[in-house]
Structure formats: structure tokens, C-alpha cells
């Protein structure tokens, strides 16, 4: 590889690496050694540098008024006057060209640019556009040795897997699901990291085609624009799909935080001027008739104007483009060599980037010939190349080329290609959180193949990944603005999967297994949203199936789901029934981790049934089990903290307030020492409550203020009524009557929202205490 690269024969060097990779994968199922991968990365970097030095800078023609405005905005940005830029226009009008020109201007001023492309296929793939940005930011963090607090890193890595700085596993407790943490947590972590890296340096972030950006990403974008002084955002979008989008952009423009540049079609005069300037070095003579014909057929669309000129430069007859714009594309693709045509026929199946590795694996011809074809297609400006440390990718210079090629292939050929691509992507799965951004692509390709069973499999996996119930151990009120609602329309997904199940019913023995996985997900979703009748029906069906086939994992999930439900509705009879079933299978399979969960559940059950001594015994057993597991795998901190919290609750109910406070402090310390935020709102509330009962008003107030900050920041609600009401009590004791009334009113509001009898009763007692100046009982 090094010898070929030294000679300047980069194609042979790259071909050799991919041949080695394929042989290692097929024969040993391993990747090349790190030293070989490093060598490949260095060769790619050297090749890119030589390509850039050889590459002629394409002159930017036209749009001079817009370019001058962009230069002015960039100059103001350098002087600390930040404005975001929104560039709109139809497909082919020049949005990408003017954006590339602006990126070039930024790079000349040594301003680093991060770029992300949005795709229609990924419209429901929440935060994918930002994941691409954070993949690039990760390099900055590493190169500059930027220190990132562990909590920020975990939240960012969970939401943006490509940010994983050192490919380490996330330190997330098995019941600490950061996906359930609300918008403010993600925004806070994103803002802090962006603010940190841009403290003394300016950056530009570019999003192309934001009309296809998911709602969560859009909300994040428009929240960040007013907040970051040293980061400028540039967004392009098609104005034909922009009604909802423009309602978000308008406030930015009204507050002078952004500029809107609308790219319109060129007038006849502008078209003629554009043609003359663009073709000045091509030795082409245009008659007035030629100029008028191009304007008439292209209607002032810059993509079609430039492609028409390129056709004439290839000595094509102008008559070939006289049948409207589709023929312009057709003519540009007419004189391709056989290998070039094969490369494009496969490439057009990808809606985003095309991996060189896939092309080399699927085109059985000589790899060097494939690489030569790719070079030629770049010279013809049909595709462009980019790379990272591990791979080389290609992309069509314009989506119109891809669309034309795709639609002109037979359905049968398309299905074969889509199936091959899906299988290739399936091989690329990581087996961790990063897979959430691969699933939609796999589903897209399988859905366009004939492999319905695989489409069903990954549709269910994708649904499962994003429909986890939030922190079930602490029943909660589910806000309709939850991240889940931004990710996917669950009902539409249900209908799609039901349709796929109908198709697969008589095709595969795996049908019933997939059906039960789906039934389980529907049951969880129904219960989470308060539709208990449907939810219990689905979970019961799932449990019956799991018991018939004696599937341990399914039975475990089914029983635990019923226990979570019983906690949510405070039904100890159902809880006891499924605890017995759970204990039976855990003992049968000697599952140590689940034994720890079982003891915690039994501890909670005995708290609810007032058997406090037995509850303590089970909770201490649970702590013992999780401490032993934690010595091997530090992933069970929150389980232990939850047990300490329950022990505190027991002592509180027994009016042993000092002992209760010790346990609450232990729970708080565990979470804070391990950068865990989940549960802290509840633990601080409990500590504040018992401190009040101990007469330590200062400590009580401090705990409650911390609890309320967490409730406000992370938009949680369970336990908030208690924090609000006790804080109201303290304020009243201090003579701050108006603020006391406000917090008591807040407490009543949250108690009613979750319909919790304990909280409602407590609010009534505190209200009476305040009015009668008596002590709360």
C-alpha cells in the first residue's frame, strides 16, 4: 500500500486495502489490524491533499448580489455580530453552489465549518442531522483535548452515538434511560459543549435541506440560534415544502438574528449573461437562437443551464435538449462507459452516501477498473467524493441525476440492489446505541426489496428502540411533548407493522415470534398512555405465549411489565401475583441481576402493604446483590440508590426521621458521585421533607430548592407536589405569604395531574396547617 501511494498510484493502494479487508472479513470475520487501518487513513489523507492541490477552483458565476450580502454577514460575524442565514429556492436553483462558495470564504478566513445533509427518508429519524454534526465535533474535542464533564458526554453520546469519543460503553444504569430525559436536558448538554468549543474560536454549522429535518432537530436548532455568539448557522431549504418551517424562521428574522436569501430563477437577461460567463473558457459560440432556446427550455434554472452548456461542450446537438429538462439529464448520461454505467446504476439506490467498500464488493470486475470509473465520473461532475479516516464515500452532484437513473431501472433490478444494500448495512450494525441511526436505512432498503420478513424484523426493532417506557420504577405523568412524539408517529408504525404481519402470516415460521414482540410493544405503549384495558389485553396475550413456549426472556419482560403496571396504578394484588411468577423463573434460571431486581420489587411491595421489617430485609438483600454485580460492572448505581430511597421511605413512615435522612443522603451521594441525574429530584424532595420534620428548616429549604430546580430543569413531575407544598410551608413560616400561596397552588396542580392520593391528602393537610397555624400530622 505504501509503495503504490509513494508512486502516486493511490487507486491501486486503495484497491489493495479493500481486497485485504474483504479476505479478512470472509475468511476470519475480522477487520484489518489498527496499524493497517492507520496506514490506510494516512494514504487517504495524502491522496486528498494531492487532489486538492491539483483541483481547479470552479469559478462561481452569477448571484453577485447574494454573494456580497453573504460576505457582509461573514464580516459582521468576525466582528462578533452573529446572524444565521436561511437560503431558500427550488431544486437545482443553486442553493448548494452558493453555500459551497460561502464555506470556501469561511475556510479562507480559517473558520471551521461543520456540515450535515438532511434526507426525506430520515424525516422521522430524530436527531440524525445533529449526529452528523457531533461526529465532526468529536474530532475537535479530541484534537484540542477539550475536557467534557461525564454527564454531558453521556447525554450527548446517548443522543448522538457518533460523538462517542473513545468508543467506551455508556455509564447508564439499566433503569437510567437518558432517552426519557426531556428536551431541556439535551438542549443544555448540546449548548454547553458548543459554547465550550467556541469560547475563543468561531465555527459555522451548515444544514442542507432542513425541510426534511425532524421536529426535534428543528426545535434544537431554533433554540440554539439566539444562544451561541460564536457559532453561525446556515440552512438551506426548498420553498415548496416550507410552510411549517417558515413559521419557525420568521421570529428569528423579526429579531434581527438572521437573514433570508431567496434564490429565484434567472431572468432572460441573467440567463444569457450566465451562459456567456460560464462558457467563456469552453470555446463555444452561441447564436441568439441558441441562447433563447436554452433559456426557454431551462426556464432560468441554473442546474439545467449548466448541464445544457456541458452538453454543448461535449459537441452534443442542441436539439437533444429541446424536449424539456428531463432530456438534459438523459443526454448528460448518454455517453457513459459500461463500467461507469454499472457504478451509477448501483449508486443511485442509495439515498445518501455510497460506500466505496460496497461498490467494490458488489462489482465483481477488477477493483482498479471500478476506481478508474469513479475517477472519470468525478471528472464528468456527476459524482463527488469525500472520506473519513476509515472509508471513502461518493455522492451525486445533484439529486436529479440519482432520481433519473433510479426511475429508469426495472423494478426487479431495483429490488435486487436494495436487498443487497440492506444486507450490507445489516452487517455493519454495532450492537449498541449507534444502531438507531442505521435501522431506518435498513428498513428503507428492505421495504424496496422483496424481503418482507426482514422489513418486518427491523421495523419492530426500530419501534422497540424508541418506545421504551420512561423510568417505570417511578410512576410518572407523560407529557404529550415527550421526545417519543417527535421521533415517530406510533399509530402509523403500528398500522405498517400490522400490514407486514398480514403479508408474512403464511410465509414464515417466525411469524408468531414477530407478532408477539409487536403485541408486547403495543401493550407497553397502551399502558404508558393510560389505555389500560387494551394494554393489559396485549400483555396477557404476550405472557400466555411466552409461558406456552417457555421463553425465559419473554416471560421475564411480561411479568415485569405487569409489576410496573401494578406500581403505576397501586394495585398490590396484581403486584403480588406477578412477583410470585417472577421469583419462580428467576430461581429456575439462577439470574443474579434479576434476583437483585426481584428483591427491590418485593421490598416495594412490602412497603405498600405496611410490612416494613420484611421490606427492609428484601431491600438490604437487593443492595447486597447489586453491590456484588457493581464490583464487576459499574452499571447498577441507580438500582442501589432506589433501594436506599425506599429504606428512607420506610423510616419516614415509622417517623424515624434521622435514620430516613441518612438513607436519602446515601441515595443522593451515590447519584452525584456517579453523575446520575435521574431520581435526584425525588431524593432531594424526601430529604427536604424529613429535614422539616426534624425541625432543620435551613437544610429542608436547601434540599427543596435543589429538588425544585431539578423538577423545573428536567420537566419531571412525580413527587413535585410534595416538594412544592413543603416549600410553601417553609415560606409561610418565614412570612413570605404570597410566594407560599403560589407554591401551594403549584403543588395542588401537580397532585391533581398525577391523581396521587398521598399527594392530594398532603396538600390538604398543609393547606389546613397554614390556615390554622398548626403542625402538620
How would you characterize this protein structure?
- This protein has 777 residues and is mainly α.
- Among the domains are: 64-262, Rossmann fold; 266-335; 410-448.
- The strands form 2 sheets. A 5-stranded parallel sheet has the order 2-3-4-1-5, sandwiched between helices. A 3-stranded antiparallel sheet has the order 6-8-7.
- A hairpin with a 4-residue loop joins strand 7 and strand 8.
- Helix 26 (552-569) runs antiparallel to helix 27 (572-589).
- The protein is globular.
- The protein starts with a helix and ends in a 5-residue tail after the last helix.
- 39% of the residues are buried.
The number of strands is 8
CATH topology call of one domain? Rossmann fold
- Low-confidence stretches are 172-180, 469-487
> Whole-Å distance between the termini?
80 Å
- Strands across the major sheet, in which order? 2-3-4-1-5
Let me know the largest β-sheet: 5 strands, parallel
The portion of residues assigned to helices is 55-70%
CATH homologous superfamily grouping of one domain: P-loop containing nucleotide triphosphate hydrolases
Looking at the overall shape, the CATH architecture of one domain is 3-Layer(aba) Sandwich
Share of residues in strands: 5-15%
Q: What's the CATH C level of one domain?
A: Alpha Beta
Question: What topology does this entry show?
Answer:
Elements: H1 2-6, H2 10-28, H3 34-54, H4 64-78, E1 84-88, H5 95-108, E2 112-117, H6 128-143, H7 150-159, H8 183-197, E3 203-208, H9 215-224, E4 231-237, H10 243-254, E5 258-262, H11 268-278, H12 288-298, H13 302-313, H14 325-332, H15 338-347, E6 354-355, H16 356-362, H17 367-379, E7 383-387, E8 392-396, H18 399-407, H19 411-427, H20 439-447, H21 452-466, H22 483-487, H23 490-504, H24 511-528, H25 532-549, H26 552-569, H27 572-589, H28 592-608, H29 612-630, H30 637-653, H31 657-673, H32 680-693, H33 697-714, H34 720-733, H35 737-754, H36 757-772
Parallel strand pairs: 1-4, 1-5, 2-3, 3-4
Antiparallel strand pairs: 6-8, 7-8
Helix pairs in contact: 2-3, 2-17, 4-5, 7-8, 11-12, 13-14, 19-20, 20-21, 21-23, 21-24, 23-24, 24-25, 25-26, 26-27, 27-28, 28-29, 28-30, 29-30, 30-31, 31-32, 32-33, 32-34, 33-34, 34-35, 34-36, 35-36
Amino acid at each position: 500500500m505504501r509503495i503504490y501511494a509513494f508512486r502516486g498510484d493511490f487507486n491501486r493502494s486503495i484497491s489493495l486495502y479493500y481486497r485485504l479487508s474483504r479476505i479478512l472479513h470472509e475468511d476470519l470475520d475480522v477487520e484489518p489490524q489498527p496499524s493497517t487501518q492507520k496506514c490506510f487513513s494516512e494514504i487517504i489523507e495524502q491522496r486528498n491533499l494531492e487532489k486538492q492541490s491539483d483541483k481547479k477552483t470552479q469559478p462561481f458565476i452569477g448571484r453577485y448580489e447574494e454573494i456580497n450580502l453573504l460576505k457582509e454577514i461573514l464580516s459582521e460575524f468576525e466582528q462578533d455580530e452573529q446572524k444565521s442565514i436561511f437560503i431558500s429556492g427550488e431544486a437545482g436553483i443553486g442553493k448548494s453552489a452558493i453555500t459551497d462558495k460561502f464555506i470556501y470564504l469561511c475556510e479562507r478566513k480559517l473558520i471551521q465549518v461543520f456540515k450535515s445533509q438532511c434526507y426525506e427518508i430520515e424525516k422521522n429519524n430524530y436527531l440524525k442531522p445533529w449526529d452528523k454534526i457531533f461526529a465532526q465535533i468529536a474530532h475537535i474535542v479530541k484534537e484540542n483535548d477539550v475536557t467534557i464533564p461525564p454527564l454531558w458526554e453521556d447525554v450527548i453520546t446517548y443522543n448522538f452515538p457518533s460523538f462517542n469519543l473513545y468508543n467506551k460503553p455508556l455509564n447508564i444504569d439499566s433503569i437510567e434511560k437518558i432517552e426519557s430525559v426531556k428536551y431541556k436536558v439535551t438542549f443544555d448538554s448540546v449548548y454547553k459543549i458548543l459554547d465550550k468549543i467556541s469560547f475563543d474560536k468561531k465555527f459555522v454549522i451548515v444544514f442542507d435541506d432542513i425541510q426534511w429535518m425532524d421536529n426535534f432537530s428543528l426545535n434544537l436548532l431554533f433554540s440554539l440560534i439566539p444562544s451561541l455568539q460564536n457559532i453561525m448557522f446556515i440552512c438551506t431549504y426548498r420553498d415548496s415544502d416550507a410552510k411549517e418551517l417558515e413559521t419557525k424562521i420568521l421570529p428569528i428574522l423579526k429579531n434581527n438574528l438572521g437573514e433570508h436569501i431567496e434564490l429565484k430563477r434567472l431572468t432572460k437577461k441573467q440567463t444569457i449573461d450566465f451562459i456567456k460567463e460560464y462558457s467563456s473558457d469552453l470555446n463555444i459560440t452561441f447564436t441568439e437562437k441558441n441562447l433563447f432556446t436554452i433559456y426557454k427550455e431551462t426556464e432560468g434554472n441554473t442546474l439545467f443551464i449548466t448541464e445544457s452548456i456541458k452538453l454543448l461542450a461535449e459537441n452534443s446537438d442542441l436539439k437533444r435538449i429541446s424536449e424539456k429538462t428531463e432530456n438534459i439529464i438523459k443526454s448528460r448520461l448518454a455517453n457513459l462507459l459500461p463500467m461507469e454505467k454499472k457504478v451509477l446504476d448501483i449508486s443511485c439506490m442509495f439515498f445518501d452516501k455510497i460506500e466505496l467498500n460496497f461498490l467494490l464488493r458488489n462489482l465483481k470486475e477488477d477493483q482498479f477498473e471500478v476506481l478508474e470509473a469513479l475517477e472519470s465520473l468525478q471528472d464528468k461532475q456527476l459524482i463527488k467524493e469525500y472520506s473519513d479516516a476509515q472509508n471513502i464515500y461518493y455522492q451525486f452532484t445533484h439529486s436529479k441525476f440519482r432520481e433519473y437513473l433510479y426511475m429508469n431501472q426495472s423494478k426487479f433490478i431495483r429490488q435486487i440492489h436494495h436487498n443487497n444494500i440492506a444486507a450490507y448495512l445489516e452487517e455493519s450494525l454495532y450492537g449498541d446505541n449507534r444502531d438507531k441511526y442505521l435501522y431506518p436505512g435498513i428498513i428503507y432498503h428492505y421495504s424496496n426489496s422483496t424481503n418482507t420478513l426482514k422489513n418486518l424484523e427491523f421495523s419492530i426493532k426500530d419501534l422497540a428502540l424508541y418506545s421504551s417506557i420512561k423510568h417505570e420504577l417511578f410512576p410518572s405523568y407523560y407529557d404529550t411533548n415527550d421526545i417519543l412524539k417527535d421521533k415517530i408517529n406510533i399509530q402509523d408504525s403500528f398500522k405498517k407493522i400490522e400490514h407486514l404481519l398480514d403479508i408474512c402470516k403464511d410465509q414464515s415460521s417466525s411469524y408468531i415470534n414477530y407478532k408477539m414482540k409487536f403485541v408486547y410493544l403495543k401493550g407497553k405503549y397502551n399502558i404508558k398512555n393510560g389505555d389500560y384495558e387494551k394494554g393489559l389485553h396485549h400483555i396477557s396475550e404476550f405472557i400466555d405465549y411466552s409461558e406456552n413456549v417457555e421463553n425465559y426472556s419473554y416471560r421475564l419482560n411480561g411479568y415485569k411489565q405487569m409489576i410496573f403496571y401494578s406500581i403505576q396504578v397501586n394495585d398490590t394484588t396484581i403486584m403480588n401475583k406477578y412477583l410470585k411468577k417472577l421469583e419462580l423463573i428467576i430461581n429456575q434460571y439462577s439470574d443474579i441481576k434479576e434476583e437483585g431486581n426481584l428483591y427491590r420489587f418485593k421490598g416495594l411491595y412490602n412497603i405498600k402493604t405496611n410490612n416494613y421489617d420484611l421490606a427492609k430485609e428484601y431491600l438490604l438483600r437487593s443492595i447486597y446483590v447489586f453491590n456484588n454485580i457493581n464490583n464487576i460492572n459499574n452499571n447498577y448505581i441507580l438500582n442501589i440508590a432506589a433501594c436506599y430511597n425506599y429504606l428512607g421511605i420506610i423510616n419516614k413512615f415509622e417517623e424515624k426521621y434521622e435514620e430516613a435522612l441518612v438513607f436519602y443522603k446515601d441515595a443522593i451521594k451515590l447519584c452525584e458521585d456517579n453523575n446520575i441525574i435521574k431520581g435526584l429530584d425525588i431524593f432531594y424532595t424526601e430529604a427536604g421533607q424529613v429535614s422539616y420534620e426534624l425541625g432543620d428548616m435551613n437544610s429542608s429549604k436547601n434540599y427543596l430548592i435543589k429538588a425544585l430546580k431539578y423538577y423545573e430543569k428536567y420537566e419531571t413531575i412525580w413527587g413535585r407536589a410534595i416538594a412544592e407544598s413543603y416549600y410553601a410551608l417553609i415560606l409561610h413560616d418565614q412570612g413570605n405569604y404570597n410566594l407560599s400561596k403560589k407554591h401551594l397552588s403549584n403543588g395542588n396542580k401537580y397532585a391533581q395531574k398525577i391523581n396521587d392520593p398521598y399527594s392530594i391528602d398532603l396538600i390538604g393537610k398543609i393547606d389546613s396547617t397554614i390556615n390554622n397555624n398548626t403542625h402538620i400530622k
